[in-house]
Structure formats: structure tokens, C-alpha cells
Design goal:
- This protein is an alpha+beta fold.
- It folds into three domains: 63 residues, no CATH class; 97 residues, Sandwich (Immunoglobulin-like), CATH 2.60.40; 27 residues, no CATH class.
- Helix content is 26%, strand content 22%.
- It has five helices and eight strands; from the N terminus they run H-H-H-E-E-H-E-E-E-E-E-E-H.
- Strands 3, 4, 6, 7 and 8 form a five-stranded antiparallel beta sheet that branches. Strands 1-2-5 form a three-stranded antiparallel beta sheet, with helices on one face.
- A hairpin with a 6-residue loop joins strand 6 and strand 7.
- Helix 1 runs parallel beside helix 2.
- The longest helix has 15 residues.
- The C terminus is likely disordered.
Length: 229
């Protein structure tokens, strides 16, 4: 979608965004608006369609990409596309936005197999632990859910999200997202320790006003005396 199309969608959702924002921040504002008003199904469906449109051309339509970005009052993207798939968009070092769909054929099969649909998201860390296993956790979702914000425990790590159905002790994999990498949350070292070129780039970026400092080193050998602060 063009920048004009994104701003047109933001205007339809009642967002007053300043011109010239990076498109990533415009998309973030759109997602935040949906999270704050999850009862508005029309807006929720529009954002789900916009997210899918970024992933593949088959999810797109021409309505919001014409002229000044879709000024037609009746334009509305579909909420569902009747395809079993899951996508994940990284928002920041700790959060990502997952959205998915299950085709009617797969839903019918789940109903016939289980007399009901029990779904969950399995969030797996890609790094293998020292014991050879991978850390993961599950998020139970309802059959009517089509999107979820996920909080990740380890910034800078890689993750994958699987959409699964419960079938006894063995879950059935319905769809698997692409692997994602979370961005860095803190500086790798103190600003004074960067080379001059990198330090200048940090200064020009304005990051100094954000008070982002390196993570303090953990010292498990340090034992405080009783009563010490």
C-alpha cells in the first residue's frame, strides 16, 4: 500500500497523524487503535486485511491503492480469506502482532474429529537450550479469535508461532508462521565505548533523549550482607 493509502485508512479510523511519519509508525498507530477498540469489528477486519496485504499480493485489492489512497466511502477489506495461515508482525523488542485464519474445510474437519474446536498458539524460541530442548509456551485462543498480541520473554531472540488444535496428548499443527527475530532492547555497551562513527550516528538518531542504556551485568557471585539495600 502507498503512504497515502495508509493515511486514508488512519483518517477513516479517526486517527490524526502528522504528515511525514515513517510508514512503520503509521502501521503501529493503526494496530494500537484496533487494540484499544476490539469491539469494532469493521475496523478490526480492515486492519487484518491491511496486514495480510503486506504479506502477499493475493490478499490485496485495488480499492485502497487508487488516487489519494481510497477515498471511496464504501471501501472495506475482508476480515477473513478462507485460508488456513498465520502471520506475525514484530512491533518492538517485546511484542508482536499475530493474525490468522482457518479455512471452512479445515474447521469442518476439526468439528467432525473432535465435536468442537480447541485452538492454541504455540510460541517457540528458536535457540536450542543446553539440554537439547527448545523453550515454548502456549496461548489458548477461541475459534472466533483471528488476532492476538504476543509478549515475548527474551528480546533479541528468534521465535516462531504455530497455530494448533488440541487432539488428546498430541496437538495438530494447522499453520506455521515464518521465523521472526526481535530487535535489540538495550545498547550492547556504554555510549562512550562506541567508535566515533557509531557514536555520531547514535547522536544524530536522537537516541540520547530516550535514555537507552546498556543492560547491567549480572553478578551471581555478589552476596549482600543482611539488611543491605
Amino acid at each position: 500500500m502507498s503512504d497515502a493509502a495508509l493515511y486514508a485508512l488512519a483518517d477513516k479510523m479517526g486517527l490524526d497523524l502528522p504528515q511525514g511519519l515513517d510508514r512503520v509508525f503509521v502501521i503501529e498507530e493503526l494496530m494500537d487503535a484496533v487494540a484499544e477498540d476490539s469491539q469494532d469489528s469493521q475496523i478490526s477486519g480492515s486492519l487484518a486485511g491491511v496486514s495480510l496485504k503486506f504479506e502477499a499480493a493475493k490478499f490485496s485489492g485495488p480499492e485502497l491503492d487508487e488516487g489519494e489512497g481510497g477515498t471511496q466511502p464504501q471501501t472495506r477489506l475482508e476480515q477473513r480469506y478462507n485460508q488456513t495461515a498465520i502471520k506475525v508482525i514484530v512491533r518492538d523488542p517485546s511484542w508482536a502482532f499475530a493474525f490468522w485464519d482457518i479455512s471452512e474445510a479445515d474447521r469442518d474437519k476439526l468439528r467432525s474429529d473432535d465435536n468442537g474446536i480447541s485452538l492454541f498458539l504455540r510460541v517457540s524460541e528458536l535457540q536450542t537450550a543446553s539440554d537439547g530442548h527448545r523453550e515454548f509456551f502456549d496461548i489458548t485462543v477461541s475459534p472466533d479469535d483471528l488476532q492476538w498480541y504476543i509478549n515475548f520473554p527474551n528480546p533479541e531472540a528468534g521465535y516462531r508461532v504455530d497455530l494448533c488444535a488440541r487432539e488428546g496428548a498430541h496437538p495438530r499443527l494447522l499453520a506455521r508462521s515464518a521465523e521472526i527475530s526481535l530487535p535489540r532492547e538495550l545498547l550492547p555497551r556504554a555510549r562512550k565505548d562506541f567508535d566515533p562513527d557509531t557514536a555520531e550516528l547514535l547522536r544524530l538518531s536522537g537516541s540520547g533523549r530516550l535514555d537507552i542504556e546498556p543492560k547491567e551485568e549480572d553478578n551471581p557471585q555478589r552476596i549482600l550482607k543482611s539488611g543491605a539495600d
